[in-house]
Amino acid sequence: MALPKCTERCEAGDALLAGCSAYPALVREAWNLEALAPIRSGKAWLVVEAPLVASMQAHTRIHPEHRGPVVADPTLDTAWWLVPLDAVDELADLRMVTVQPVGWPLHCPPTGWPACGRFWLTRPDGSGQLTDPAVLAATFGPGGYRRPAEASA
């Protein structure tokens, strides 16, 4: 089966993800085989695990400049948000989310297509942008964060 061509943005996202692994060539090999690649947290980001439906609702409420990569797995009803390394304290008291420890393997699809049922709600674009933990905490906390209304023309 031929894999779809990836855009420059997908290539940059894949390069960023593979670069976070101790074995970037193995990450790319897994993706070439249409498999998930385990990439351990702690080099550039931490992983926040949350229920999928709540994550999808949060995803729509968070403005793109505050939102980084998010992986979704409908089969497991789970999503994983990539956040800065110092986000632990800000997210520690939220019952809906789990901050995974440094070294936790996130099994990632490539940015350009789904693999094994997983896909990117927000793809890494190579910029290194991560989800703002304060906004994520507000979104999953009591009452939830609401994106400010767009100014009308």
The outline comes out as globular
Class computed from helices, strands and strand pairing: alpha+beta
With strands numbered from the N-terminus, the spatial order across the biggest sheet is: 5-2-4-3-7
**Assembly context of the chains:** single chain
Instruction: Give the helix level as a range of percent.
Output: 25-40%
Rounded to the nearest angstrom, the radius of gyration is 15 Å
For the termini, the CA-CA separation is 47 Å
What is the average of the pLDDT values? 89
| Strand composition percent | 15-25%
Low-confidence stretches: 143-153
Number of helices: 5
List how many beta strands DSSP finds. Answer: 7
Please trace the helix and strand order, writing H or E for each element.
HHEEHEEHEEEH
Protein name: DNA primase/polymerase bifunctional N-terminal domain-containing protein
Organism: Streptomyces viridochromogenes (strain DSM 40736 / JCM 4977 / BCRC 1201 / Tue 494)
General description of the model:
The protein has 153 residues and is α+β, with helices and mostly antiparallel strands. The chain has one domain. The chain contains five helices and seven strands. The chain has helices at 8-19, 24-32, 52-61, 88-91, 133-140, and strands at residues 37-40, 46-51, 70-73, 78-83, 98-99, 105-108, 119-122. A five-stranded antiparallel beta sheet has the order 5-2-4-3-7. A hairpin with a 4-residue loop joins strand 3 (70-73) and strand 4. Helix 1 (8-19) packs across helix 2 (24-32). The protein is globular and about 40 Å long. The chain starts with 7 loop residues before the first helix and ends in a 13-residue tail after the last helix. It comes from Streptomyces viridochromogenes (strain DSM 40736 / JCM 4977 / BCRC 1201 / Tue 494). This is DNA primase/polymerase bifunctional N-terminal domain-containing protein.
